[in-house]
Amino acid sequence: MTSRFLEQDGFRSYDKIVHSISQKLAFIEGVFGKGVLASNGKNFSVRCPICAPSDLNKRKLAIRTSDDAHHCWTCGWRSYSLAPLIKKYGSASQLHRYRTEFLPEGLKNRRENPDPESKTVTPLPTDFTLLSLANLANPDVKAAWTYLNSRGIDIRDAWHYKLGFSNEYRWRRRIMMPSFDTCGALNFFVARNIDANDRRTKYDNPDDVKTDIVFNELSIDWNRQLVICEGPFDMMKCGDNSTALLGSDLSPSSRLFSQILLNNTPIALALDADMWYTKTPKYVKLLRSYDIDVVVVDTRLTQDPGSMTKSQFADSLRCALSPSWEDSFMDKLSKLSEVSLRLKHAY
């Protein structure tokens, strides 16, 4: 008798779980569109609203039914809660229903972080102030504008790139440039000193390890030619649709590279002149291997885009060509000839 009641109670519990899951999957489809449940019932795949493929049947956002952890196999988005996506792409009522009815118990007291594997981004200083709104009577602000004007950067650039400053000791007399992701959240910032005799490092960044970000991602139109340069101050000469590598590495496993492939974005490489014979041809070959259109901006006369005026860079961009293997061979031959000539004069 007892066994029969336990069996019936077990069936009722199982039916309740199945009913709850089916309700949740119906809710998810109401937010993200029709989904597909894996044969083992562990994952439910829907169209990712972030990369939003034109093919509505391309369902690459895989959601684990047991705890809502999910990952897009195309754009790389991942999180342990659906709340951030519902907040951005759903309605207020859908977000409320998710939090009250479907949010897994283990997440109810946990902060909704868009990436459980990344560290929290160091926030801007509490006194961060936009230079475009700052009082010119402040000598640090006046010095910052003197430096910017000497670099050919104007008020329009200050607004567009949200340049600012802080009076905190670490950041004082540095121009700060924040970067925002595609959702408008701060993902990094850099700070450059403005004094030639400053013994501190030229650039200072947040202490936390730089995660895999796309600098200036919020302003990027992936359907237009994207200029890739090395540094943020280079970027301000490269036009609005540009990004900085924050170094000189472009990895095939990076978020930037994934976004380029996802959108088939044409690229203009504008690396510093010292990369002309090394990383520039390497990246041209890499991008071409994925059928990405790529041209190269010649920076050898000025060493880097940051040393150009905006009009000079625009002219160089218009003249940028997609180098052939013959061009690469002749460049290397010319380089070898220069080295040989210098050695001959040295002896």
Question: How is this structure best described in words?
Answer:
The chain is of the alpha+beta class. The protein has 2 domains: 2-107, DNA Primase, Chain A; 129-334, Dna Topoisomerase Vi A Subunit, Chain: A, domain 2, CATH 3.40.1360.10. It is built from 10 helices and 14 strands. The strands form 4 sheets. The chain has a 5-stranded antiparallel beta sheet with strand order 1-2-3-4-5, covered by helices on one side. A hairpin with a 5-residue loop joins strand 4 (70-72) and strand 5. Residues 1-17 and 110-118 have low confidence and may be disordered.
Give a quick precis of the structure.
The chain is of the alpha+beta class. The protein is 35% helix and 14% strand. The chain has 10 helices and 14 strands.
Ranges with pLDDT <50 over ≥5 residues? Answer: 1-17, 110-118
Instruction: Give the end-to-end Cα distance, rounded to a whole number of Å.
Output: 104 Å
Averaged pLDDT: 84
Query: Which series of helices and strands comes N to C?
Result: HEEEEEHHEHHEEEEEHEHEHEHH
Helical content stands at 25-40%
Taking Cα atoms only, what radius of gyration do you get, to the nearest Å? Answer: 26 Å
Strand order of the largest sheet: 1-2-3-4-5
Count structural domains. 2
Largest sheet: 5 strands, antiparallel
Strand element count: 14
Q: Any idea what the shape is?
A: globular
Kindly name the structural category: alpha+beta
| Portion in strands | 5-15%
Question: What is the architecture of the largest domain at the second tier of CATH?
Answer: 3-Layer(aba) Sandwich
Report the CATH topology name of the largest domain: Dna Topoisomerase Vi A Subunit, Chain: A, domain 2
